[in-house]
Amino acid sequence: AAGAPKPLPSSGPKSLREMPHPLATSSSEEMGPALTPSPDLLLPRSIADKDLSLPNGTPVDTSSPASSSSLLNRLQLDDELDAETRDLFVTVDDPKKHVCTMETYITYRVTTKTTRAEFDLPEYSVRRRYQDFDWLRNKLEESQPTHLIPPLPEKFVVKGVVDRFSEEFVETRRKALDKFLKRITDHPVLSFNEHFNVFLTAKDLNAYKKQGMALLSKMGESVKYVTGGYKLRSRPLEFAAIGEYLDTFSLKLGTIDRIAQRIIKEQLEYLVELREYGPVYSTWGGLEVELSEPLEGVSACIGNCCTALEELSEDMTEDFLPVLREYILYSESMKNVLKKRDQVQAEYEAKLEAVALKKEERPKVPTDVEKCQDRVECFNADLKADMERWQNNKRQDFRQLLMGMADKNIQYYEKCLTAWESVIPLLQDKPETK
Amino acid sequence: MEDCLAKKMEITVSEAEKRTGRNAMNMQETYTAYLIETRAVESQSEGQCAPVDSLWRRYSEFELLRNYLSVTYPHIVVPPLPEKRADFVWHKLSADNMDPDFVERRRIGLENFLLRVASHPVLCQDKIFYSFLTQEGGWKEMVNETGFQLKADSRLKALNATFRVKNPDKRFTELKHYSDELQSVISHLLRVRARVADRLYGVYKVHGNYGRVFSENSTQGLADDSHEEWEHVRYAASIDDILEEEEHYADQLKEYLFYAEALRAVCRKHELMQYDLEMAAQDLTSKKQQCEELATGTVRTFSLKGMTSKLFGQETPEQREAKLKVLEEQIQEGEEQLKTKNLEGRDFVKSAWADIERFKEQKNHDLKEALISYAVMQISMCKKGIQVWTNAKECFSKM
């Protein structure tokens, strides 16, 4: 890190578009010397002289350039970043079952490829289990409270109802975990998080976890973000709109989830009957002479339709529903972040009010009120940026999801069509060669 | 089939009407009457239509006609009537006899029955059938005057009673077995088909709910195009048409379910004939034996009468002479009867078998047609599904 970098302008009242580009030459003098147009894009720590800390005193992780404005600038750059200029790739695959005396569990291989300076090596391959992912998520929530952290697939599964070790379950989970890490990788702030780095690289994650716990116990404070219980005066329109949107969105998702489940259920009941239907034609064929072949053909055809329907239902269950659920979880966690933001704002307003009531001669704004204001502005900017990114991702994800669903249905009908078309020649009179 | 009636005459059951009247016990009843329209087919004249004759008949009259035909032509596989009560229905269809859909399907079934009879080489020539189509009043009396009810063998009513036939005709035994199996398999098929229709209906209707989700507040929704909604609603509604068409297929199967019964009836009649023949032959043999015993005085077979006459006194030679004469007469009668029965039996087998062959060909042809149209229906359904989802995919791609 360089010397005392100058702070970038606060995002406060200015709109996203008015932010000067960090690489813009016109204001290069104002930029800290730490700025170099390198692929790593080391952005200076802004607002570094004002320490960012959570209301309960826990220092905010500032090892990564987690600032409002730098983030916004980074966001602009992001649009120009395409696959070739990405410098961090993470994949989750190769699930393996581990049987120990105390327990049985699954680990997944997490592979990282990167050119970033924060990583000592260009490649890493580690094994992680669900607990580790859960730990990572909690750490990210603690250390980046102003950001939206992507959701994890559900932690608890009802024993006896779902087989935790079945191929389908493991594969569904693997896909979700892969998505989780990829979303973090794509995030300009979260991807630089120290815990994320350790998660991707450490051979022994448990040792690190213990270290972290020791540190916290030293501080003797709960890491959880404590809500101050302040009442909010007025929510900025944009956040109110986001809140309303999320409510509607969650409701709609819930409805779609229910309908999808209902469709799958009806399809499976239809399948049960269809499975009995096909063989009856075969029995009939056994009685007949001339009609034997066509009836067998119809029986086989219905059998093929059964298989096609089975595949369709499986796809719905394994691909469609999990993504819906994921977004439901996402909405929930976003609402929580919105609440936190409200809290931060409420605290600031309360402090401001307290100062106004003191009626001091010199209306000197005390430093802690200023800190609050910064916190609010920081939070707002981070959240806004994350929301935009989320909206884009959501649109893409749903577009892909729905198109995928349409594709699967088309494939199902095409399979059935082929099956029935093959029956017709069996029923047509053969040319009189007898 | 050049001279079959169907070629000479257009026959339709064109209307159905609800009526009220008084039944045999003078109680008020509601029933449906069907309008039978007939018109001679003029092969020469163009543009000149022969006049249409019409009369009304109710279901019970159709039944009477069919009973008459069954009894009068026991060796023929008589076409069946449509079902008396709605059976094998899936939930949307009503099982009520007065339900307009049921009445409509029955109307079609009755027309089909008349056309079948009119195209049968033997049945179409029947006078009673012709009168049924053309003579409004007094038809019932005419039928009863034929006295066919007397010919009807009440033993046939006991469907499952077995007659121990010593030398069963293998072909008929196999055919009876086949008709039993056919009835069983088609019943099973119709039952499962009804359940399949029920479930398919359920699937389509839930898809209709998708449309509603998308239509609400599309700016906040996941898809902004209202086309998406229409597609799903149309998709959900299309199931009604599909299942209605499938009912027609079910009706075709039902006809052959009932045809199987008619086939079985022919086998049963043959069985009875054979049984009667064997009984008659047996009777004749025992009479001949008795005759012999009386003539020679030897008692070969034990009989209580013989024993009692031995115990309580012998018969006078005159008495024996009288008995012999009676027996000889009976034997002669019996032999003639047996000859006739044998001839009848052989005729029956010959003509029955000819009709059975005709029926087999008709069955194979009809069922192939039915299966083809069923497959075509399924194909069209698949194509519609592909279209709907392709359109949906288009909409999604614009998100």
Describe the structure using short key phrases:
heterodimer, A: 434 residues, PX Domain, Substrate Binding Domain Of Dnak, Chain:A, Domain 2, 2 domains, three-stranded antiparallel sheet, 9 helices, 7% strand, disordered N terminus, B: mainly alpha, elongated, PX_dom_sf (chain B), PX_dom (chain B)
Tell me what the structure shows.
Chain A: Belongs to the sorting nexin family. Chain A is mainly α. Chain A has 2 domains: 86-208, Phox-like domain (PX Domain, 2-Layer Sandwich), CATH 3.30.1520; 234-427, Substrate Binding Domain Of Dnak, Chain:A, Domain 2. Chain A has 9 helices and 3 strands, in the order αβββαααααααα. Chain A has helices spanning 68-80, 130-143, 167-186, 194-201, 205-219, 237-287, 292-358, 367-421, 424-427, and strands spanning 88-99, 104-114, 123-129. In chain A, strands 1-2-3 form a 3-stranded antiparallel sheet. In chain A, strand 1 and strand 2 (104-114) form a beta hairpin. The radius of gyration of chain A is 29 Å and the shape is elongated. Mean pLDDT of chain A is 77; it is low at 1-81 and 217-226. Chain B is mainly alpha-helical and 399 residues long. Helices cover 65% and strands 8% of the residues of chain B. Chain B has helices at residues 5-8, 59-72, 100-118, 127-134, 139-145, 148-151, 170-215, 227-296, 304-311, 317-397; strands spanning 9-22, 28-40, 53-58. In chain B, strands 1-2-3 form a 3-stranded antiparallel sheet. In chain B, strand 1 and strand 2 form a beta hairpin. In chain B, helix 7 runs antiparallel to helix 8 and helix 8 (227-296) packs antiparallel against helix 10 (317-397). Chain B starts with a helix and ends with a helix. Mean pLDDT of chain B is 83; it is low at 217-225. Classes of the chains: A mainly alpha (434), B mainly alpha (399).
